[in-house]
Amino acid sequence: MKYIEFGIGNRWIVRTETEFEDGTETEQQGIIRPIHFHSLYLRIWIGKTVFVADLKEGCKKSRKSRSKIKIVIGISSY
User: Fold this and answer.
1) SS (H, E, C) 14-78
2) Among 16, 8, 66, which Cα is nearest to 42's?
3) Average pLDDT over residues 54-62
4) How many domains does the chain have?
5) Which residues pair with 61 in a beta bridge?
């Protein structure tokens, strides 16, 4: 699964994170093609609380162990 994110709080303003079947992941600057649209989401991370609004999965709130400030709009892709 690929996640293409635009926003502040990541290493780059535009990045692509790729998750592999074995659980490892890589992060690359820019948009890595091909893009096979799966869903669109908004992630707001303030402190240890993360709010996610996703077109496919709906809205959810979770807690993380590390504290950050992050606001991104993303596309999940196959």
Assistant:
1) EEEEEECCCCCEEEEECCCCCCCEEEEEEEEEEEEEEEEEECCCEEEEEEEEEEEEEEEEEEEEC
2) 8
3) 97
4) 1
5) 51
**Nearest Cα to Cα of residue 43 among 16, 7, 2, 67:** 7
Provide the percentage of residues in the chain whose pLDDT is more than 70: 100
Place of tokens 């996640």: 3
The pTM assigned to this predicted structure is: 0.89
Structural domain containing residue 50: 2-77
The one-letter amino acid at 11: R
Q: Identify the band that residue 4 occupies on the pLDDT scale cut at 50, 70 and 90.
A: very high
Query: Smallest Cα–Cα separation from 40: which of 25, 58, 19?
Result: 58
User: Predicted confidence band at 41 (pLDDT cuts at 50, 70, 90)?
Assistant: very high
